[in-house]
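Look over both lines:
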Amino acid sequence: MSVSILIVNSAHAVTISPVMIELSSAKRVVSVTLSNPSDQPINFQAETLSWRQSDGNDHYEPTDELVIAPPISQIPPKSKQIFRVAMRVPNLNNDERAYRLILEDVSEVSAPQLGVVNIRFRHNLPVFVVPADEEKVSLRWSKCSAPAGQGCVRLDNDGNRRIRFLELVVAGDGWQKTISGGTVLSKSWKSWQFDLTRGQSQPVSIKAETVNHGAISANLSD
């Protein structure tokens, strides 16, 4: 009998803090710390993308509206590197702006070894630039069309800040179902489709656990 052993090279594993960045007129710079616990140096390159949602989908494009310093860095073994994230221009809009900060491991991959897999990481962090106006929460839940045997709920976020859901619980006549959550940006919408078993009616209500607004519930309009 032969035994195969696969070793994953975790020399390039890092820890990152914080994993979500929020900027404002009062807090125009945020520091992100990458720690390298390994015995090897790691090279990281930073990139920023704008993040918007249209037609219920996420869209990303390169942007220069944020400044990252340094844009590229080598982190020595057992050391840390601080990346500073700043706004190039203040947010004068009434709505929150959303971005993604990409921190990519661009270190050279070591020579191939039998039974060893080298992994390089690409970390994708959300960045939000909040407006000067007070937060306005305005959520509209509704049913949406779906193929036969499925249900669909939709949220229109008419507020000026994002809302992030941990999970959703949709309910119909005598049934309920838990589905995964997600983030809905300001002035955007998102829909969730899910399977219905034979005889289950369309959903009539929803309960949701959010990160930034606690528990919410609503009846679904047609």
